[in-house]
Structures are given as C-alpha cells and as structure tokens.
Predict the structure of UTP--glucose-1-phosphate uridylyltransferase.
Amino acid sequence: MPVINKCLFPVAGYGTRFLPATKAIPKEMLPILTKPLIQYGVEEAMSAGINTMAMVTSKHKQAIKAHFQPHPEIEASIQDTPKAPLLDEVNHIIQQCNFTYIEQQQMQGLGHAIYTGKALIGHEPFAVILPDDLCTNDDDSVLLQMTKLHAQHPDCCIVAIEAVPMHAVDKYGVIDGELLPDSKNAYRVHNMVEKPTPAEAPTNLSIVGRYILTHEIFAVLETTQPDKNGEIQITDALLTLAKQGKVIAYQFQGTRFDCGSVKGFVEANTFFASKFFSS
Ligand code: UTP
C-alpha cells in the first residue's frame, strides 16, 4: 500500500481578493478565530499521517516560515501564565513535522506552482492542500479519506470535488466522469474543463483544493502549455492523465469553506465561533 509522506502547499499567490489585508500579510496567515489558515491545512495533512510539509512560497510570504519556527521570546513571556497553552498546538506541529520551502519566482498559475515543488517531493505520490479551501469533518479528515481511496488506486491521481451551484462553476475546474463500480462518491474522470461558463460545464462537480498526485504529473506539467492568461493550469495537466483513465474525482464527506473569498472566510469564522462558544 503506497503511503503518502509529503504534502505540498502552493502558497505563492498574491491573494488579491483579500486586499488590502493581504498586502503585507500572506492570505494563508489570515486567522479563523485565532489560528491561521495554513495551520488548519498542516493539521489536516498530519491527520492523514503526513509529516513532511513542502511549501511553495514567494519572497512575500516569510510569515508562513516564521509561524512554523519556535519563538523563544514569546514563549518566555507567557511561560507560567494562563496563556502558556496557546502555543501548544503549533509547537506540537513544529516538533512532529519537517518543513521544506522553495520559492516560486513568478506567479504563473497553480500548475506552475506545483511543478516548482518538484524538487521538494522526490519520486513518490504526494498530497496537495490549498489552505484557503478550509475543510472540516467530524470523522476522517478530507485528506485522510482521499489517502484511503488512493491506497486502492495507487496509479491514479485523486481530486476532491464538490457539487456547486451551476451559476458558480466558472470559478472552478469541472469534471465529467462515471461512478466507479459500487461507489456512490468516486468517479473515473473522462473530461475536465477549467472555469467553464454554465452552458459549457459538463456537470456541476467542481474541483476544490485537495489532491493526491502521482509523480507522473511532473512530466505532464513540463509540457503543459500556459492558458490565455499565461498561467499553467493543473486541470490541463490532469486532463492528460484523465484521458489515460488515471484520474479519480472524489466527492468527500465534510464541509469546505472558500476562505479565499470574503464570504467564505466570514462563514468559516462564524462556523468555528459557534462551535467554540457552545463548547
Ligand atoms: P488562487 O486562484 O486562489 O489565487 O490560487 P491567489 O493569488 O491565492 O488569490 P486571488 O485569486 O488573487 O485572491 C489558488 C492557490 O494556488 C496558489 C495560491 O497561493 C493558492 O493557494 N498559487 C496560485 C500559487 O502558489 N502560485 C501561482 O502562481 C498561483
């Protein structure tokens, strides 16, 4: 059974939908209550048994690296006070995980960001988390559900999908496929379209920010042409593998918040706040 050891976090984007907040602060450091989005992502990767976190960053994202390093001065200042436990969770992550970093020099799309991470991955399947898609589930995390499915289909890439309203499909990569035998939520993908109009969309099953990718994706990305905006799309690279029957789309159990949008970010804060204040 192939084990997923590494999770890639493409976090080099500018987060322009969240300006001016993201002018100096990385989008991934915006907090849901007191915890930044990137920490939720790392915790989800850990819940799937992963302990190497490979970050594709940019020179503007130093705060992400700082978040996953010890801060002796703050620790000394809260030691022996009621605030001492507030750093426990992140310190646990720092102790358990290995963090690696590479810079994406220019914003050339998610596919390019993932290709930039090749040097951090090695010759093995790996997970990808886009931390602005915050996923939560009472039972197995979304990434754990996906690693279990990948174990049954080790030659395939797995993409997480969600049914979105038809009018919203133009924000996503949309899949077409057929259910695997005996499955209610996993599709063999035949086609994928990046940001279609509702009229062009084959379904409303939209790809969200969780992937398990086989190493084969890097060879495909190497020859994937940029789109009309000059961006290399991971959807285009996955389509090449889908045509070979090597992509499975998985409709996960759980809730996703699009925290890259103000609406999703507020909804996530409201959801976690109501849980926190009722506990
Ligand atoms: P988004 O499409 O959400 O872009 O990228 P963005 O820059 O983060 O946000 P907006 O749209 O300007 O508000 C999806 C994911 O891909 C990463 C982003 O950091 C985000 O995690 N990404 C995107 C890169 O790492 N590099 C890129 O060139 C593009």
Summary: Residues 10-18, 27, 56, 104, 107-110, 112-113, 130, 132, 260 surround uridine 5'-triphosphate (CB under 6 Å). The mean pLDDT is 96. Residues 124 and 215 are 6 Å apart (CA to CA). The two ends are 39 Å apart (CA to CA).
